Amino acid sequence: MLVLFCFLSLRKQPTFFVVVLTDIDSERHYCSCLTFYEAEINLQGTKEIEGEEESGLIPPAEVFAPKSLVLVSRLDYPEIFRACLGLIYTVYVDSLNVSLETLIANLCSCLVPASGGSQKLFSLGAGDRQLIQTPLHDSLPVTGTSVALLFQQLGIQNVLSLFCAVLTENKVLFHSASFQRLSDACRALESLMFPLKYSYPYIPILPAQLLEVLSSPTPFIIGVHSVFRNDIHELLDVIIADLDGGTIKIPECIHLSQLPEPLLHQTQMALSLVLHPDLETADYAFPPPRTALSHSKMLDKEVRAIFLRLFAQLFQGYRSCLQLIRIHAEPVIHFHKAAFLGQRGLIENDFLTKVLNGMAFAGFVSERGPPFRVCDLFDELVAFEVERIKAEEGNPPKMIKHVRELAEQLLKNENPNPHIAFQKVPRPTEGSHLRVHILPFPRINECRVQELLQEGLARSQGAPSATRGDKKCVVPAGPPVVSIMEKGSTVFNSAQRLEVVRNCISFIFENKFLETEKTLPAALRALKGKAARHCLTQELGLHVKQNRAILDHQQFDYVVRMMNCALQDCSSSEEYSIAAALLPLTTAFYRKLAPGVSQFAYTCVQDHPIWTNQQFWETTFYSNVQNQVRSLYLTAKDDNHAVQLRQKVREYIKYQHNIFIHVLIVS
């Protein structure tokens, strides 16, 4: 498989690039490839040219074959691997007096420190002095300058289009004449998704023999060499990005959902201020001195900080929509998508709906849903900084200040110790790859490598363990879910309208039917607002005693009429909480039709489409289970009471599960 990735056919300077392989367990392996070109010479004094042999002295080489040094690791340290492979090549090409077996054994026996900002100086034994610097947090991506480079290659609008494409599970294909640029672009695009993680095929460098993978029905992020540009233009459902030309091609058959406003405009403006700092002062009659761009690594982190702020705004209050439906043996957490979209005012938003339904967000809920775990920068941002982000919308200087604060933290994560020790790695002599006569790369003695490797491991057995215990804590809940748009005053949610609903219900149960007739039209109009519908369920619940409430005929008709009004919009624009709250009330209120014959309210409201919505029943089931789990753990004060509660929970869950299965069978 590696041969497909490594070998090229042209003679040029040694090249280096990193290939990412994913195994069956979704674990990534990073294959660092250093390719050089070796002369094909017959040392017996003959050389072969197109089947003909000419005897004589050893002539200068005319035929060159590629040869690759490949290092496969689960660790993602491309610059360290570049230096190590480069050192092995230097020892070979400059004929240094160092055993290649020794270099390889020292490399394989090097113990990498755990994450958390640890450092380790090491040497392969060829006069080198190298340093491994681990990031502070494993969860934060390490990007170097790849994100800034991607924006430099494609521009703001094109990168935002690709960002939306991967979040909404579209196929994205990069092509470039540089293998390393392909790897960097794929790394950058994936890192912009943080805190989400990409879970579909991720192949930064796809070999020619596997081009048929591009016809896969699943989403992907893939890179191919530009020599195949004519083969990929026939793909009809793939978004193609030309890194060298700075363009992207979106097929007509793809409807690309965009970020919701005002987040899209705010993100574009922030990126413009960071990437083009002179834009704001370009029209000034007396402009200030030219603003210099941040250095490439800092610029990279500033761009990433903007996307971190974006996700904090996009997922604000997400923890209030998590439903914990099992604790032991492993927590099982469900996300109430409809409630989140409804409270954010984005029920009809195509972009966020696709994001919440995607595999990346499912992984986000599974990984970040538990309330007690290791926290990182995103958890702090979404919990404590959202209000600050909103306050900075119309104040570019404050926004830039916050972006730079976040960028400093991202930069510190990658380089926690900026004053690092001096590093030295010998490089090959200038022009060494052009030498006329050079011996082929020698065959490695595997037995000798194993011997040296065992010796190195034996020496390191007494070294302290490179483990680090991450500190777990209670995840801050943060602010509640609020609408993404600024809300103006609304008559339906005013205190006066809620009072109308309360008065109408009071008149019904006090048998004041004349007053009921006067207030009922206003109460029905008020029920068009969500707050009034919540008020209705609360007020009706106050009149239920021991799960039953018998009504006379007029009371029953009024209550059913108000229930029907509240249920009208639940299937399309409500977050199901109203229907879930009314569900037990419909089985509580009833009237006597004849001796031994009763009519319950559910018989008069059962035609609403919400009752045939499978997602509603799933969400209601999970919500009820969470409430029972909470009651078990929050109110149990003694063992006997705890046992009784657990038994009630099991019975209740079994009862709810049977109802749920029955509804699925009927529907």
From TrEMBL:
Coiled coil stretches, renumbered: none
InterPro entries associated with the record: cDENN_dom, dDENN_dom, DENN_C, DENN_Domain_GEFs, SBF1/SBF2, Tripartite_DENN, uDENN_dom
Span of the signal peptide: 1-17
Cellular component aspect of the GO annotation: cytoplasmic vesicle
Keyword tags: Guanine-nucleotide releasing factor, Signal
PROSITE patterns per the UniProt record, alphabetical: DENN
GO biological process terms on file: regulation of Rab protein signal transduction
Pfam families: DENN, SBF2, uDENN
Gene Ontology MF terms: guanyl-nucleotide exchange factor activity
Domain UDENN: 1-375
Protein name: UDENN domain-containing protein
